[in-house]
Design goal:
Number of strands: 0
Transmembrane segments: 44-67, 87-106, 112-129, 150-168, 212-232, 252-272, 292-318, 330-353, 360-378, 384-405, 417-437, 443-462
Structural class: mainly alpha
Subcellular location: Cell membrane
Pfam family, one: Polysacc_synt
Keywords: Cell membrane, Membrane, Transmembrane, Transmembrane helix
Strand content: under 5%
Number of helices: 17
Membrane topology: Multi-pass membrane protein
Length: 479
């Protein structure tokens, strides 16, 4: 294993630990909100968050990807690209969020729900800034500072929201807590970036810096926008076609999906600079397949648990009111994380190869698939229909991306990296099907069976994967 691969794996592990802590905190306040708020109020909050992230994609454009690509290729340009990207994103966000706030002023059912949406839109600003800070850390391949900042943000957000709910402040208090957490998080991200010796001054910003930041981002931005539409449009359509209560049902299942997606994002931020820094086809394919093997270790057992025990897990966390319908939606979402990762890593490879048009084609085909299926499936099937549409769309995107990459020598493979986790997941499925016990006991036993099976298989057919895991664990212990 080369030094680049080990460094990428180490960075992915640091981000992964931070994302785990952050996702646990986010899941905690989501569980609290689902249990305390009415289904309609929880659905309204979920819709506001989804709309904020959807609109943020307009402002985010392709600037963060541009920071990673340009900064990796030209280290001296990183401070200028960072500042220029922040200015562009802020200007676009002011426009997009402002227009959205005005347009929804009279369309929200109550004045309180509009204030919830307005607070979430304000939270979009520090969210955008923090994302760019994490892109800078990815270029520097020094994720510890921003990872700590992300954990601080998620923990502060969780504490603020739970406190607001306990005080009886309802959806408005939740939104205020969310805003407070993002502001604290941005402050922590800003400190982390300064420690990486990236300290541009706004006074020194030039038109050349703005042009540099915007250069080459158009197709990436359009593709990113399409990707975010693919990621969030189902929630918006559910709200309009079936109402806030159905949004709440879907949000519960989708929150569990989002909780595990941190693995994809952590690995993606680690492998994109590696892919961009080399023109070697074998190294690029190796980066893709190793990234896929890492996420498969988590996502294949997630799929098994979601199908066989999803309703029990939902009931345990969110209450019996969500168990049946959200459990059914979760089963339809079970394959989505792995399919999403396959398309995400393939898109990263296309980005490294400067194939922006191909990225746009793949994401556009997936979005059209998602929109068509949502419009057909949501009216009769609600949250389950939206979940099925999401999974199908990611499957289509993965197929299209891999078809585009067939010309790469050697071409990336999707199925072979999954073999160790797939074989071990069969043991997990058998354990869950045969054992009749409380869900936590079943999951604990199943996890033991899965880990044992994975180690036995990986020792025989992919010992290098086991070697990397051992080295990562030893590094974390030494720290």
């Amino acid at each position: 294993m080369g030094a680049i691969t080990h460094r990428a794996a180490r960075n992915a592990s640091v981000r992964g630990v931070a994302e785990i802590l952050g996702k646990v905190a986010t899941l905690a306040w989501t569980v609290a909100a689902a249990r305390v708020l009415t289904q309609e109020d929880f659905g309204a909050v979920s819709f506001a968050i989804a709309l904020m992230y959807l609109l943020s994609s307009f402002a985010a454009w392709g600037f963060d990807a541009g920071v990673m690509r340009r900064g990796s290729a030209e280290a001296a340009a990183l401070p200028r690209v960072y500042l220029g990207s922040q200015v562009w994103k802020t200007a676009l966000a002011v426009t997009v969020f402002g227009v959205a706030a005005l347009l929804t002023l009279g369309s929200e059912p109550t004045r309180a729900s509009w204030f919830v949406l307005a607070l979430m839109l304000l939270a979009g600003f520090p969210e955008l800034w923090s994302h760019t800070a994490r892109a800078v850390a990815s270029v520097r391949q020094s994720p510890t500072g921003v990872s700590t900042a992300l954990v601080v943000q998620r923990l502060v957000t969780a504490v603020a929201i739970v406190a607001a709910l306990a005080a009886g402040l309802g959806p408005l208090g939740l939104a205020a807590g969310f805003l407070a957490g993002t502001l604290v998080g941005w402050g922590a991200h800003h400190v982390a970036v300064r420690r990486l010796a990236v300290r541009p001054r706004l006074r020194g910003l030039t038109r050349a810096d703005l042009r540099l930041a915007a250069s080459g981002t158009f197709l990436i931005g359009v593709s990113g926008l399409v990707m975010m539409l693919l990621f969030r449009v189902d929630m918006v359509l559910l709200a309009r076609l079936r109402g806030d209560a159905e949004v709440a049902v879907y949000s519960v299942a989708y929150r569990l999906l989002e909780t595990v997606l941190f693995v994809s994002y952590a690995v993606h931020q680690a492998v994109l600079p590696v892919m961009s820094a080399t023109s070697s086809g074998p190294r690029q394919r190796s980066a893709y397949e190793r990234a896929l093997a890492v996420v498969a270790f988590v996502y294949l057992p997630f799929a098994v648990v979601s199908v066989l025990e999803g309703d029990a897990v939902v009931g345990l966390l969110f209450g019996e009111g969500y168990e049946v319908e959200s459990g059914r939606a979760l089963a339809w979402l079970a394959p989505a994380p792995l399919l999403f990762a396959g398309s995400l890593f393939g898109t990263a490879l296309l980005m490294a190869l400067l194939r922006s048009r191909a990225m746009l084609v793949a994401s556009s085909v997936a979005l059209l698939t998602n929109l068509a299926l949502n419009l057909v499936l949501i009216p009769p099937y609600g949250a389950s229909g939206a979940a099925a549409a999401t999974t199908a769309a990611y499957a289509v995107q993965t197929v299209v991306v891999l078809a585009i990459l067939r010309g790469l020598d050697p071409r990336p493979r999707f199925l072979p990296p999954l073999v160790p986790a797939a074989v071990a997941s069969l043991g997990l499925a058998a354990a869950l099907a045969l054992v009749r016990a409380p869900v936590l006991v079943e999951l604990g036993l199943g996890a033991g069976v899965y880990l044992l099976g994975w180690v036995l298989v990986v020792r025989r057919i992919a010992p290098d994967q086991l070697s990397v895991v051992r080295q990562l664990v030893s590094r974390q212990v030494r720290r």
